[in-house]
Design goal:
By secondary structure, this protein is of the alpha+beta class. The chain is built from 15 helices and nine strands. The two termini are 44 Å apart.
Length: 348
């Protein structure tokens, strides 16, 4: 959300199309990777081993039995159901494109394959395939700039960006930001293709009129790059936009700062050894662990931080092979829980 908000406010209307392409793809990569980073300067395992000397073994099986259809289970069923639905949707989209390629007449060249469609519709591209209206091509009515636009999508391999975003969408379908990022990626593709066309033919006014002509047509495929995809108004404004070199460097610098702040604000924080006090709790129950989770206590398993939900589920399902240690502060208040395997403890 932070990275995308910065894009909308600072980058979207600036002529830095190549940088914006990789920035948008980077949003997906970094947003998934940053929370998994661990910037602790000390290793948790070495620190915990010095104070984790009190093994708590008073967990009874009755205390740990839960209904298999718990809230977590239902959430997993819902999530996996969404993954299945969007996976099927993605495959169907690919099959439809494959069917169009097989069924219609094709004109092959060294770098592109033109697929001629019988119905009048907006041209679009997928990989090195360019889908064009058959009647316009055969009668020589297809505007040169339209073909250049779709060939630019193919040359710059925009389809790979779309496929990457779609695969990411399958696993993060519940997150609204993924929808916004996908739309921004496609819009930036149009900016890039427009920029290429204007570099080949400098008639900006005529090209803007062409955009208005195609703005009323729509493409029915989510996986393609189509000339009318984005708002014609935004693209027309971008064509007439100018950005100074100093402004570009300033935005690049601020982008790096925002990413730097995100890394340090949202990374996975480890438990430092000096935060744990030697005073243990002599007895503990599942209720106690839940209270610890509610207070934001830290849970560590095999030297790595894990979520409280994962820790409680781990203890409930595998308590017979685990050793659980609770740590308190100087006021005897529980602040952390260390979970380890009995086999590893006995080895040490």
């Amino acid at each position: 959300m932070v990275l995308f908000a910065f894009y909308k406010l600072v980058l979207e209307q600036v002529k830095m199309q190549a940088f914006k392409r990789f920035y948008l793809l980077g949003i997906l990569v970094f947003a998934g990777a940053i929370p998994l980073m661990n910037l602790s300067w000390t290793t948790e395992a070495s620190k915990l081993s010095e104070v984790a000397t009190y093994v708590l073994s008073d967990f009874g099986s009755k205390d740990l039995i839960t209904n298999t259809l718990s809230t977590n289970n239902w959430l997993w069923f819902l999530y996996l159901g969404g993954v299945g639905i969007f996976s099927v949707r993605f495959v169907i989209g690919l099959l439809k494109l494959r069917q169009l390629i097989r069924q219609h007449h094709k004109i092959e060249s060294d770098r592109y394959i033109q697929v001629l469609l019988p119905k009048l519709q907006v041209p679009y591209s997928f990989l090195h395939y360019v889908f064009l209206p058959k009647e316009e091509v055969e009668k020589g009515l297809l505007v040169k700039e339209v073909l250049l636009h779709e060939q630019a999508h193919a040359d710059q391999k925009h389809t790979l960006d779309i496929l990457f975003a779609e695969v990411f969408h399958i696993f993060f379908w519940w997150n609204p930001v993924i929808y916004w990022v996908k739309n921004a990626i496609k819009l930036n593709h149009e900016f890039l293709a427009d920029q290429h066309v204007l570099s080949q033919n400098g008639e900006a006014i005529d090209y803007q009129k062409l955009l208005l002509h195609y703005s009323s047509l729509h493409s029915s495929h989510r996986l393609v790059s189509a000339i009318n995809y984005s708002s014609a108004k935004k693209r027309i404004l971008m064509i007439s936009q100018t950005t100074s070199k100093a402004s570009k460097w300033l935005r690049l610098t601020v982008s790096a700062c925002v990413l730097f702040l995100c890394v340090f604000s949202f990374n996975k924080t480890a438990i430092a050894g000096d935060e744990l006090y030697q005073g243990p709790l002599k007895s503990v129950s599942t209720k106690c662990l839940k209270q610890l989770a509610d207070r934001g206590g830290k849970f560590v398993y095999r030297g790595k931080n894990i979520s409280s939900d994962k820790a409680l589920l781990l203890i409930r399902t595998q308590f017979s092979r685990l050793e659980v240690r609770i740590f308190t502060d100087e006021h005897k208040k529980a602040i952390g829980c260390c979970i380890s395997d009995k086999e590893l403890v006995s080895t040490f």
